[in-house]
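User: Here's a chain of 152 residues. Predict its fold as C-alpha cells.
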Amino acid sequence: MNAFTTGPFTGRHAAALLVAFFAVVIAVNVYMAREAIGTFGGVVVENSYVASQEYNGWLHEAAKEKALGWSAEAKRRSDGHLVVTLGGAPDDAVLSGDAWHPLGRLPDRPLKFARQADGTFVSVDALPQGRWVARLEARSGATRWRTEENVL
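Assistant: Prediction complete.
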C-alpha cells in the first residue's frame, strides 16, 4: 500500500482525487460546450413549439413539391456566378433564392437569376469562395417548388 506515498491513504487524499476528477470533467464539458456553440451551423427558429406544430404541414408541402418531378443542379462557375439547370420545370418558371453559409461565418446572400437562351439560370451576383448552401425556389404560375443545393 505504501508504494507511492510515505503514509497511509487518508480522507484528504480521497477528497483531493474526487475534486481533481470532477474539475477535469467540468473543464472538458465547458470546453466542448463552448466549441459546439461557437461552430453551430444549424437552423434556429424563433419558436420551436410553433415550428413543431407546423411540421406536418411542411411534410405535406414537401410531398406535393416532390410529386411535381422538378429537379435542380447548381454549379459555381470560375467567376463565382451560380449556374442552375432546372429539370422538368415548365418554360415559364422563374427562379429565385438565397445562399447561406453553413458555418454561419458569413451573412446570407439573396440570389437573383437571369434566364439564359439555353434555359439555364445564372446568378446576377457572384458568391464568395467557400462552401455555400443555395436555397432555390422556382415558381410557375401558382405552383411553387423548393430545394437546397450544396455549392462548393
